[in-house]
């Protein structure tokens, strides 16, 4: 606690203060979503216990242009991809929320969660047509190849408010498992 403000509140304020500072990044890199802060519920960001993030990270796998053919299984799995930049404070603020959602969907074998450093993996960023960070994508299942799966017609971009409830609803709505 600092001056009557809970520790998590202080961390949230610090993240947004850092956002005001121009941080160096790759020349052709997409913008940080600092102007999209209205899409985040500050209460939702503050409600995430940062100490639990370490265990939740086991539900989020790293995706790169080098490993995508080995770990994406588009024929029978939906893939959620959080494309982030390490220098982007909005990406940093979104990561614990994304990890919490991944943990909540861990029982679904047909939904996998990935994170991709769009700043360091330019090839992947261009394949996915990333224009800002963080970008949340849902790659639909049913494609016969990774190339077909990442085609813009098979990828949904999340544009709504970034709250845990809204994200879970979006995932449940579009990552529907059909029963046989």
Concise structural overview:
With 180 residues, the chain is an alpha/beta fold. The chain has eight helices and seven strands; from the N terminus they run αβααβαβαβαββαβα.
Pick out its properties.
two-stranded parallel sheet, 7 strands, 180 residues, 35% helix, five-stranded mixed β-sheet
Q: From N to C, what is the helix and strand string?
A: HEHHEHEHEHEEHEH
* Integer average pLDDT: 79
Structural class of the helices, strands and pairings?
alpha/beta
Number of H/I helices: 8
Query: How many extended strands?
Result: 7
Q: What's the gyration radius in Å?
A: 16 Å
Stretches with pLDDT under 50, minimum 5 residues: 12-27, 43-53
Largest sheet: 5 strands, mixed
Give the strand order of the largest sheet, numbering strands 1, 2, ... along the chain: 2-4-3-6-7
What is the helix fraction of residues, given as a range?
Answer: 25-40%
Distance between the termini: 53 Å
What general outline do the C-alpha atoms trace? globular
Strand-residue fraction? 15-25%
């Amino acid at each position: 606690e600092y001056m009557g403000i809970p520790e998590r509140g202080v961390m949230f304020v610090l993240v947004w203060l850092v956002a005001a500072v121009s941080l160096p990044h790759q020349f052709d890199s997409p913008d940080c979503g600092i102007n999209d802060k209205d899409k985040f519920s500050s209460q939702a960001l503050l409600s995430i216990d940062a100490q639990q993030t370490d265990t939740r990270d086991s539900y989020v796998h790293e995706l790169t242009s080098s490993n995508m053919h080995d770990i994406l299984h588009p024929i029978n799995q939906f893939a959620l991809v959080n494309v982030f930049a390490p220098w982007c404070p909005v990406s940093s603020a979104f990561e614990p929320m994304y990890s919490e959602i991944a943990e909540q969907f861990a029982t679904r074998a047909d939904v996998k969660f990935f994170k991709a450093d769009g700043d360091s993996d330019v090839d992947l960023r261009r394949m996915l047509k990333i224009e800002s960070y963080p970008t949340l994508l849902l790659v639909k299942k049913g494609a016969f190849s990774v190339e077909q799966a990442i085609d813009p017609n098979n990828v949904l971009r999340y544009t709504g408010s970034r709250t845990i409830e809204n994200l879970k609803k979006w995932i449940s709505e579009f990552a529907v498992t059909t029963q046989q």
